[in-house]
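Hi U.,

Before I forget, here's the chain from the pilot set. I'm dumping it here mostly so it's searchable later in email.
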Amino acid sequence: MSALFELDAIPKLPLWAQALIAARMARRAIFNLPNEFDENDRRSLLTLCDALDDAAATGEYRKATIAPLAARMEALRGGAGGAAVDALYWAWDAAGAAHGAQSFPVDATCIGDVQQAIAAASRAEGLSPLKVRIFAAADLDQIRFACGEAHVGFYDALGPEVMGRLAPVYPPDERSKRAT
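Structure:
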């Protein structure tokens, strides 16, 4: 069955894969922020997305790298970034939960955060609930397949075997902006 109809399968993915789906959804929302959004802030948010991708790949939550970026993100919550920043907040929290699950039973926190990130992204400017569902289904399909091929366990980092199989998340081009 198409992942479009089985997004409830996300909690069955490894925790870092769940966190990666949230980070990819946040990245899409940030790419769709209006042109008037401060470019330095956008770069800072995308750098945090990169750090979350790296954390999912390596299983190492580099607090020294992530903390200043997360502080900037927190300062932007409730402002012009709106739901896109909220999606990133929940993706950041999901990565923290995936990391924390190595020591504490916080698996449910990770999936709750992923669900919050997906919900926030669906409210972000330039996205819609249908677009987000399609993106989440595409991510679920490719990440689930790659994790299965690489035999990634529930608490394992994704590694280059998974990350190298994923289609990149690109900013929308002008044609797709006109279509919304």
